Amino acid sequence: MDRLIIQGQKALCGNVDISGCKNAAVAILPASLLANDVVVLENIPDIADIKNQVRIMREMDVDVEYLDRHTLKVDSRHMKNDCANSESVRKMRASYYFLGVLLGRFKKARVAFPGGCDFGVRPIDLHIKGFEALGATVTTKAVIEMQADELRGTNIFLDFASVGATINIMLAAVMAEGTTVIENAAKEPHVVDTASFLNSMGADVKGAGTDTIRIRGVKKLHGSTYAIIPDQIETGTYMISAAVTGGDVTVHNVIPRHMDSISAKLREIGVRVIEDDDSIRVIGKGCRLRPCKVKTLPYPGFPTDMQPQIMVLLATIPGTSMINESVWDSRFKYVDQLRKLGANIDVESHLAIIEGVEKLVGTDVEATDLRAGAAMVLAGLAASGVTTVSNVNYIDRGYENMVEKLQGIGARIRRDSGREDPQLSVITGNAV
Ligand code: EPU
After folding, report:
1. Most buried of 15, 46, 80, 258 (most Cβ within 10 A)?
2. How far is the CA of 163 from the centre of ligand 1 (A)?
3. CB atoms inside a 10 Å sphere around CB 236
């Protein structure tokens, strides 16, 4: 399997264009099936999770065509309501959106159990409670089966502001009878983007981005052309690449407001962050960085999907930092890999205590999930010597062209199919 070979300690400088938001695209692509019409989606990221969803949709007889690398035309007029036998559904978490979509459109669904990154238990009980509240009967045995004579709007209070449950309930409720109110709704930018997309198809969704979302059911939806927002987490990852290498990087095609919690934390650490209309310049060069405390929270708090990346930065800043992971039960598994590079991190349940070290030292590490994979790359960029990162398939799930984008800002990184000795190729000058 492919791995990345990185020769670190090079300050990254230059410009990076940010791709479309993975977690918006993986909701909006299935949501397009609610229309029984033709939908064109722009700024779709070219990542493995999207290719997987396209595969699932084609298995359901949806006509999906790439108009270019980032634009998809979806014609769902002849689709079927079953993806229960799809291996592709089991490969990713976001395939749970087919539940809400099929229920909303056909009042009936059969879907295999979704998979995804391993952060401990990843239940979908809040999604199912929401579908039941709308009137569906749900059985979960080998596959998830749902059926409703009629879907009726109701009030749904979420015990936790779950991104997936909020979006899934919106999908099931847009064509229900009457009004659905979701309280304690998730407020992430991708929730808002999905609501905006649904409205572009004729839905009546109000309040997305606040705690309370009101969905007035409409009879049917129509086709639309819609562009996905930029990816908050990809943006944050490149912002940290500048900070951790003492570089100077400008990320383009971003929405600075979505980055507020990350920009604020980087400033607290001592990094210079300069915002413009749709770009952010991050300067680590010449800055004296300080340790800090981070707590992951639902939006607008600091995102859990940036937790491994900021861990790498804090691991390289002398002094004691702390990270409290409050969203997922088990999202510190990757810390063992960072320890191999010399990081000094103790983990107690949801809390990581980081004693920053002067430098990390390159070695062989694994990507244990998508964001942990990005963190390993950042660690390799900061470390002395050569770092190899295996299990690159995790990174491919959510980062478009990561190697090329990093090379564009001066990183010595390349992808290798696993046959060469990286030490040897560094010595001979072919490595990166
Ligand atoms: N939860 C429940 N029951 C549910 C749903 C969630 O208890 O029915 C709990 C989870 O166990 C977790 C918390 O609620 O402790 C948050 O889960 P949420 O439902 O918000 O997460 P998700 O929708 O499954 C999305 C992103 C994740 C991101 C989380 C939190 C997608 C496809 N995935 O997952 O993104 O970590 O929200 O922001 O949107 C990633 O991109 O790397 C990634 C993992």
Report:
1. 258
2. 6
3. 30
DSSP state for residue 229 in the 8-state scheme: P
Minimum CA distance residue for ligand 1 atom 27: 305
Report the nearest-CA residue for atom 12 of ligand 1. 328
The 3-state DSSP class for residue 344 equals strand
| Statement: the pTM of the whole predicted model exceeds 0.85 | yes
Residue 117 designated active-site: yes
Amino acid present at 371? R
The residue nearest atom 20 of ligand 1, judged by CA position, is: 162
The residues with which 387 forms a beta bridge, in sequence order, are: 6
Return per-residue pLDDT of the chain as tens, 432 residues: 899 999 999 999 999 999 999 999 999 999 999 999 999 999 999 999 999 999 999 999 999 999 999 999 999 999 987 776 778 888 888 889 999 999 999 999 988 888 765 655 678 999 999 999 999 999 988 789 999 999 999 999 999 999 999 999 999 999 999 999 999 999 999 999 999 999 999 999 999 999 999 999 999 999 999 999 999 999 999 999 999 999 999 999 999 999 999 999 999 999 999 999 999 999 999 999 999 999 999 999 999 999 999 999 999 999 999 999 999 988 999 999 999 999 999 999 999 999 999 999 999 999 999 999 999 999 999 999 999 999 999 999 999 999 999 999 999 999 998 655 555 444 333 334
Contact 338/354 with Cβ under 8 angstroms? no
Ligand 1 center–CA 119 separation, angstroms: 10
148 touches 180 (CB < 8 A):
no
| Calpha distance 262→96 (Å, rounded) | 28
